[in-house]
């Protein structure tokens, strides 16, 4: 299985409290496994507050809904042994 790398990493983003924010990370191969999103070192799951999806097979997205001050911190995307943070 090919080593999946990060082609385009996360970008730092500032938003207002109550807004939604989306982070995108492009990887080198479709159907990447062993993918993880974290906020402040806490693993995120797909739920009503966090939307995790994949566009066109290679662009992994995380949308944080109605962010609060407590959501301030580092977002991390990991695929295999490669990571990107914002």
From TrEMBL:
Main localization of the protein described in the UniProt heading: cytoplasm
Localization (cell): Cytoplasm
Source organism of the structure: Mionectes macconnelli (McConnell's flycatcher)
Name by which UniProt lists this protein: OBSCN protein
UniProt gene name: Obscn_2
Domain Ig-like intervals: 2-86
GO cellular component, one term: cytoplasm
Pfam families documented for this protein: I-set
Keywords: Cytoplasm, Disulfide bond, Phosphoprotein
Coiled-coil ranges from the UniProt annotation: none
PANTHER family named among the record's database cross-references: OBSCURIN, SI:DKEY-31G6.6
